[in-house]
């Protein structure tokens, strides 16, 4: 799956302009918050944010920025899951989930050294991913993807438990990830 396809899917899920009163992120268009749009040079009305600007932000900030393009070269399904996590929870959270899952699946550091959970996909994280995939193959990619998805689901539940107003979003957050 290409990054263009992943971005199209995110934009389709997120829809057009939304300003839900329970959403702490405020107004969004195509899933891009006002703060992210402003930080990336867009200063117009959020209702008017062009789709192409949103797509460019997704690719630069949530795909290439954290190095998911490098993950995709090794494990495309995993990269797609991490992209979804990065968009919804932040790039550092996505990278941290990957690092946690790799640490838990390294058989007591027998397959590769434990990683520091620094929330960055750098050379050590990629080396651990390479070692994991060399040992576990495509089935390993599916298991690792499932582990990251489980961490994402648990975090959604915790967010709703900590702030009841987020219960308005929980069903949709979880339903979007079925399939």
Describe it for me?
The protein has 179 residues and is mostly helical. The chain contains 8 helices and 3 strands. Strands 1-2-3 form a 3-stranded antiparallel sheet. Helix 5 crosses helix 7. The mean pLDDT is 93.
Question: Could you provide a short overview of the structure?
Answer:
With about 180 residues, the protein is mainly α. The chain has helices spanning about 5-15, 35-40, 50-65, 70, 75-90, 90-105, 125-160, 165-175, and strands at about 15-20, 30, 30-35.
Q: What are the key terms here?
A:
single chain; 179 residues; mainly alpha; Chitosanase, subunit A, domain 1; 2 domains; 8 helices; 3% strand; globular
Which sequence of SSEs, written as H and E, runs from N to C? HEEEHHHHHHH
Provide the helix percentage.
Answer: 55-70%
Number of helices: 8
> For the largest beta sheet, what order do the strands appear in spatially?
1-2-3
